[in-house]
Amino acid sequence: MLIAHLTDPHIGLGPGQIECDIKPVLALRRALVHVAHLRPAPEVLLVSGDLTDSGHEADYQTIADLLRTQLPAPAQGGPQVLMVLGNHDLRAPMLHTLAPYMPVADDAPEGTMCLHATHGDLHFIGLDTVVPAAPHGTLDAARLQWLERHLAQAAGQPVVIFMHHPPLVSGMAVMDSHGLLQGRAELGQLVAAHGQVQLIAAGHMHRAITGQLGGAPVTVLPSVSHQLALDLAADGLLACRMEPAMVGVYRWTPEDGMACHYSYVKSFGAPVPI
Questions:
Q1: What CA–CA distance (Å, rounded) separates 31 from 18?
Q2: Which domains does the chain have, with CATH numbers?
């Protein structure tokens, strides 16, 4: 199975709001076209939050229109699309417009949009890490208890967890202060106890980062729109860089497990045979 992953399109971020030449709608369209042309075709597309910059319903409608026009429907060989929200998103308008891609669990903690879906032999668990009106994320007791129940339902079966705020410390001081500030250790314990979590996929950092938690790999994908400069100084500042966007392409089989590839959206020309 191939799983595609994209994150942080920030639709609605306009000129002048940030000192970079950002064109979020064009960037998302290009990323979706890239996904549509991957071969073999991905069976699942994960979108890990910050779909919009300000949570406006019109921006979610733009995303819905792009998904409809740039990707084949699952019945025509397109991927099953699954989404979680990020700190720039708003739950109500996002769910109102993008509900088909957010199958919120009936028992999700009140006020959250956690989801649990299956595709083939894999369970996909989407965690809502958002704290309303705050840049940082959390996994509080209610969300951790929900996750524990759903991992128990998938006991002995392979699971992919995806979320917006990554469960790692990157060394980018400002972003870490806006990271997952509660529940990382407990999440690691649940992942280790389950023993079959194949991958934890996240966004938020606007950089490619790899780590591990509870014995499972953690992959953080760059934004499809714009990146943050790598600055690991203790007093580092946030700065935008127009580094190339990437789409995660994750290959999973029961025999071989998970292998994570990262495919540039920008074309670098036709491959040259060696």
A1: 21
A2: 2-264 (3.60.21.10)
